[in-house]
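Morning. Coffee machine broken again, so started the prediction first thing and wrote up yesterday's gels while waiting. Chain of 172 residues, entered below exactly as on the submission form.
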Amino acid sequence: MSGMRRLGERELRLPAGLRGEMRSVVGEIAAGARLLLLAKSSRTVVSVGDVCTANLLRAGIVPKLSIIDAITKRGKAEGIDFPREVRKVHVSNPPETITPALWRAIEGALGAPGSTAIIVDGEEDLASLACIHLAPEGTTVIYGVPNRGAMVITVEGALKARVARVLERMED
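Came back before lunch.
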């Protein structure tokens, strides 16, 4: 039975029944100065999405982990200029999916010294779930919410448990 395998060892796909649950607000939606204040006050920042990552980098905030796919709601995104010291990892990941390769890349980046950018060929739309599941408590995960700003979430035990339940219900 595939559900018995450890998360990250199988390809996880979001079933239609979980889409509504994914849209629930679990953090603070922030933009502009408020977003930057929250990010600057965080010990460790993880960003998912091109626009939010670019905004953080422009403000001088280099996330521990950035995950981008060069796509925004408006189409192809501009290239993001990461500082030279940021390690870059390329991973293929289809829409509405978390592949074992993306999972391993996130796990490796969070455990490695310095900062890492994961550049996804495909989509990073569900990467925030893996980030919340894998990041240490106290990490701030920031991801774009189209037309609203960025969701800013502090990883804590109850949220990790909720995300684990969602991940376990995903299909492979």
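The chain has one domain: 26-169. Going to sketch it on the whiteboard this afternoon.
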